[in-house]
């Protein structure tokens, strides 16, 4: 039987206020970078209301989320979160195979199978916490629904999917950042050397603080594949986007940024995704984005959208009021 382990290096001692609190929140992200980021930011937001928050994830992903959050989250806010590790069985993590005949990313299957083992230790942790608080609220990634399925046997527990929180404004949080693959890989170049070795003392191979970069006044546009975190960061920063979607949710996100919000232009149409995108096409998109006429309208629209989003998350803003409503709901007597 797997046992859920509290991480002593990141576990803060509960204050008297926390101990007297009748509600606790468990946050359960899907173990992938884009999911870890959003729910850790949400954890800090919920914790800022004085609600004890327990962030549960496999050890390597928990450490990953914390290490990459240091540049964006106030360390004092991060220390308020109670981190708990769920051990997972060892599994091989093969690199993606671009020549695979399968359209499904089969290299992710081992991780999926490993996640199946999380149900039992999570249920044990939930049961233990339910004995200490009047109500336990679980906020989980929709892809982790199978892990929390035993909640029906715990009478004082309730669950919220991350997507459902959007109706109460929590899903509109302006925080988060996009990233690189969970496991870094070195690609051999044609000369037989390692690209990673060649840039080891020159380039930046680590985690780029993308929100800070986009927030810099010198940045006028962003060529993006339109992952959701990148879109959110562009919107919050008021930065126009040259959209170049590749896969998954990126085409839909690009449609939102370009077609709905009007704060971007398309580098390459999704219908032509199988075609080679040449440097001239990227250059043309950048010139359009940064030039007069169309580019000026798009950049001005991006600034306006950014101002509206930032205002919504401040005290008295619509998103903040919705979050206040959610906190009041879970604290109901």
TrEMBL record:
InterPro entries associated with the record: Glyco_transf_N, UDP_glucos_trans
Domain Glycosyltransferase N-terminal: 22-160
Keywords: Transferase
Pfam families: Glyco_transf_N (PF26168), UDPGT (PF00201)
Keyword Transferase: yes
GO biological process, one term: carbohydrate derivative metabolic process
Keyword Transferase: yes
GO MF terms, alphabetically ordered: UDP-glycosyltransferase activity
Family affiliation: Belongs to the UDP-glycosyltransferase family.
Name by which UniProt lists this protein: UDP-glycosyltransferase 73B4
Species of the source: Striga hermonthica (Purple witchweed)
Organism lineage string: Eukaryota, Viridiplantae, Streptophyta, Embryophyta, Tracheophyta
């Amino acid at each position: 039987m797997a046992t859920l382990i509290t991480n002593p290096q990141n576990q803060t001692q509960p204050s008297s206020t926390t101990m007297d609190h009748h509600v606790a929140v468990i946050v359960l992200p899907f173990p992938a970078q884009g999911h870890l980021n959003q729910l850790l930011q949400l954890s800090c937001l919920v914790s800022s209301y004085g609600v004890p928050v327990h962030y549960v994830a496999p050890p390597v992903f928990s450490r990953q989320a914390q290490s990459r959050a240091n540049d964006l989250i106030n360390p004092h806010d991060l220390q308020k979160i109670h981190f708990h590790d769920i051990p997972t069985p060892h599994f091989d993590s093969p690199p993606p195979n671009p020549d695979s005949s399968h359209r499904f990313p089969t290299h992710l299957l081992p991780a999926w199978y490993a996640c199946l083992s999380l149900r039992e230790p999570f249920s044990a942790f939930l049961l233990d916490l339910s004995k200490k608080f009047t109500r336990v609220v679980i906020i989980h990634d929709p892809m982790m629904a199978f892990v929390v399925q035993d909640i029906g046997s715990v009478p004082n527990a309730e669950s919220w999917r991350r997507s459902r929180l959007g109706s109460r404004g929590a899903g509109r949080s302006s925080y988060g950042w996009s990233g690189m693959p969970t496991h870094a890989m070195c690609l051999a170049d044609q000369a037989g050397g390692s690209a990673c070795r060649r840039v080891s003392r020159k380039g930046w191979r680590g985690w780029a603080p993308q929100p800070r970069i986009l927030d810099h006044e010198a940045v006028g546009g962003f060529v993006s594949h339109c992952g959701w975190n990148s879109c959110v960061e562009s919107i919050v920063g008021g930065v126009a986007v040259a959209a170049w979607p590749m896969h998954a949710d990126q085409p839909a996100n690009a449609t939102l940024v370009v077609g709905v919000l009007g704060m971007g232009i398309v580098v390459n149409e999704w219908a032509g995704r199988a075609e080679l995108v040449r440097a001239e096409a990227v250059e043309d998109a950048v010139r359009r984005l940064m030039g007069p006429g169309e580019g000026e309208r798009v950049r001005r629209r991006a600034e306006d959208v950014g101002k509206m989003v930032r205002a919504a998350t401040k005290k008295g803003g619509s998103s903040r009021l919705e979050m206040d409503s959610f906190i009041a709901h879970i604290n109901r007597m």
